[in-house]
Amino acid sequence: MTATETTEHQRRIVVGVDGSPASLGALEWAVRQASLTGAVVEAVTAWHFPAAVGGYPIIDQTDWAANAQAIQDLAVKEALGDEATSLVRRIAQGHPVRVLLAAAAEAELLVVGSRGHGGFTGMLLGSVSEHVVAHSPCAVVVIRTPVPAGDARDLSGSHS
């Protein structure tokens, strides 16, 4: 088996990796869970070609797939260091929700990070984590970005 293949009946944990702090936490959590359950972790990074920005078509020489691969490489190295060797990795073109839901087919668990875009920003952007929770074919774990100590949103009760 290569680093990009899984067997048909192997236990799988799919994790969305976009380079954000929350996705690094999700990747770390998924690897710890896999070590407890014997599952294989499949790190998935989605990318799509932005057709237009501000009404103007984008015409450039950017290799969007290579950029997604670089983001995933850096995220895996930062989150896992030497533990990254046991990881199955996938880069896929498409909207993150669609890509993650397709990857989660027949997985036992889908793990995603949440950037915490609530309120108006969340309504405008939508939430990948909300969509996958609502539509996933398997159980979903959402890892939130840790709130820095002393932040007004810190509900832990410890204030310095």
Search tags:
160 residues, alpha/beta, five-stranded parallel beta sheet, two-stranded antiparallel sheet, 5 helices, 36% helix, disordered C terminus
Q: Helical proportion?
A: 25-40%
Percent of residues in β-strands: 15-25%
**What's the order of the H and E elements?**
EHEEEHEHEHHE
How much is the average pLDDT? Answer: 80
Instruction: Record the strand order, biggest sheet.
Output: 5-2-1-6-7
List segments where confidence is low: pLDDT < 50 over at least 5 consecutive residues: 1-6, 119-125, 151-160
Ends: how far apart? 50 Å
The profile of the biggest β sheet is: 5 strands, parallel
Structural class: alpha/beta
Which outline best applies?
Answer: globular
Number of helices: 5
β-strand number: 7
Radius of gyration (CA) equals: 17 Å
How would you summarize this macromolecular structure in one to three sentences?
The chain is of the alpha/beta class. The chain has 5 helices and 7 strands.
Q: What report would you give on this structure?
A:
It is a single chain. The chain has a domain at 17-36 and 63-89 and 110-115. 36% of the residues lie in helices and 22% in strands. It has 5 helices and 7 strands. A 5-stranded parallel beta sheet has the order 5-2-1-6-7, with helices on both faces. Helix 1 crosses helix 2. The protein is globular. The model is unreliable at 1-6, 119-125 and 151-160 (pLDDT under 50).
